């Protein structure tokens, strides 16, 4: 069951501001830090924050005095509420509190206050003005000033480099515990995000960028909390698994969610089509590569026994035909995730691609015998495998951009 103390109405009397802001503090066994954090944060908000605000302490299953302190703070201040979340994990706490919020803008920050509070207003202001749907703090962007251990620095920079250069995210720092969003814009994203732990942030940003939401970054002054409970290496490995999972989901067409239209984009580019993110292309290529390795092994097992009764060109043709049909069906089902549809047209286009592959591999083996007469089956096979490998990239692009792209249109 969820226990909750509800805050008083979150509108400052007499204020001209219409945007309300709810700041979530996820906590798990933080009895030492919680009182100081909330005291400091509420004092700053009361003195220097121009928007109507509230604080929600999201207790994620604490077994120490955290919940007791949270309820005491809520009883003292009507702008503070305490809520118990029955599911462990920072992502679960944020999804539950943001999802049930009635504020215009939702935010969250870590209880250690590693981020300077002077960054809070720059985090919220672009959301109030309507210039973006999500804002994130970055420790790796221009203007950021950070102080942390060498291990965390290396792991963080490596992970974020992977998210940008491999999976195509534009955000420079996906994991900083300092983010905000327009509640109406991220409602659909929260329902689609599966992770309940540290990968929540990255998954939300991947889906946000994939669905065309605008993400704005705010440089941070950030000091590492030496008492942090985060297991950096273990968390990074879990995040890498999450990247592959979300990339495959996007590639399978499961990454689309209901998000508000962006007026500026609709007005200036009414027929705009968002490019497929690199995460989806990478996930498809990984699936294609696995099927390609299996196909190469199968081709080898077929070619060698066929080479005895047939000529090199004949053995190559039979092996390619059998492997080509199986390869196309495997890629249709698992790499490009296509169900039924007009399979005849699909396989006709695949046959044209097959003919190209056969022509090039046959030229390769014919050229071998012209250059080195008397070459045996093993040398022939090596040359064919090299030629087949060189065709892999061309085949992937052709399947993605032509064979299955046409199949997608026919299915629609």
Can you give keywords for this protein?
412 residues; 10 strands; 2 domains; elongated; Spore Coat Polysaccharide Biosynthesis Protein SpsA, Chain A; alpha/beta; disordered N terminus; disordered C terminus; 13 helices; 8-stranded mixed beta sheet
How would you characterize the overall build of this protein?
With 412 residues, the protein is of the alpha/beta class. The chain has two domains: 4-268, Spore Coat Polysaccharide Biosynthesis Protein SpsA, Chain A (Alpha-Beta Complex), CATH 3.90.550; 278-411, no CATH class. Helices cover 55% and strands 11% of the residues. It is built from 13 helices and ten strands. The strands form two sheets. An eight-stranded mixed sheet has the order 1-4-3-2-5-8-6-9, sandwiched between helices. A two-stranded parallel sheet has the order 7-10. Helix 5 packs parallel to helix 8 (232-251) and helix 8 (232-251) packs across helix 10. Mean pLDDT is 80; it is low at 1-17, 264-276 and 406-412. This is Glycosyl transferase. Its main location: membrane. Residues 288-404 form the GtrA/DPMS transmembrane domain. GO terms for molecular function: transferase activity. It is found in: Membrane.
């Amino acid at each position: 069951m969820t226990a909750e103390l509800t805050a008083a109405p979150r509108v400052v009397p007499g204020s001209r501001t219409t945007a309300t802001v709810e700041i979530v503090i996820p906590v798990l066994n933080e009895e030492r830090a919680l009182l100081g954090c909330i005291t400091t944060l509420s004092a700053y908000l009361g003195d220097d924050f121009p928007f109507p605000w509230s604080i929600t302490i999201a207790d994620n299953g604490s077994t120490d005095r955290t919940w007791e302190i949270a309820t005491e703070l809520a009883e003292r201040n009507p702008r503070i509420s305490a809520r118990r979340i029955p599911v462990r994990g920072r992502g679960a706490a944020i999804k539950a509190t943001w999802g049930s919020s009635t504020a215009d803008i939702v935010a969250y920050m870590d209880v250690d206050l590693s981020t300077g509070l002077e960054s809070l207003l720059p985090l919220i202001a672009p959301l109030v003005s309507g210039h973006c749907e999500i804002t994130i703090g970055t420790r790796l962007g221009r203007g950021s000033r950070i102080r942390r251990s060498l291990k965390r620095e290396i792991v963080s920079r490596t992970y974020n480099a992977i998210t940008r250069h491999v999976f195509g995210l534009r955000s420079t720092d996906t994991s900083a515990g300092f983010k905000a969003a327009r509640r109406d814009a991220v409602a659909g994203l929260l329902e689609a995000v599966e992770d309940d732990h540290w990968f929540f942030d990255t998954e939300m940003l991947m889906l946000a960028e994939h669905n065309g939401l605008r993400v704005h970054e705010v440089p941070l002054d950030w000091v590492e909390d030496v008492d942090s409970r985060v297991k950096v290496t273990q968390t990074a490995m879990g995040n890498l698994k999450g990247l592959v999972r979300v990339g495959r989901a996007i590639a399978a067409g499961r990454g689309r969610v209901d998000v508000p239209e962006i007026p500026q984009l609709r007005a200036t580019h009414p027929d705009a089509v968002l490019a497929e993110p690199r995460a989806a292309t990478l996930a498809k290529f990984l699936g294609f590569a696995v099927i390609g390795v299996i196909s190469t092994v199968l081709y080898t097992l077929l070619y060698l026994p066929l080479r005895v009764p047939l000529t090199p060109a004949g053995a190559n043709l039979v092996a390619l035909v059998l492997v080509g049909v199986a390869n196309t069906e495997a890629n249709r089902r698992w790499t490009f995730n296509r169900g039924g549809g007009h399979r005849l047209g699909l396989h006709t286009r695949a046959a044209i691609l097959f003919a190209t592959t056969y022509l090039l591999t046959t030229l390769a083996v014919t050229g071998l015998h012209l250059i080195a007469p008397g070459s045996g089956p093993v040398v022939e096979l090596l040359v064919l495998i090299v030629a087949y490998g060189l065709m892999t990239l061309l085949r992937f692009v052709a399947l993605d951009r032509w064979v299955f792209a046409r199949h997608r249109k026919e299915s629609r």
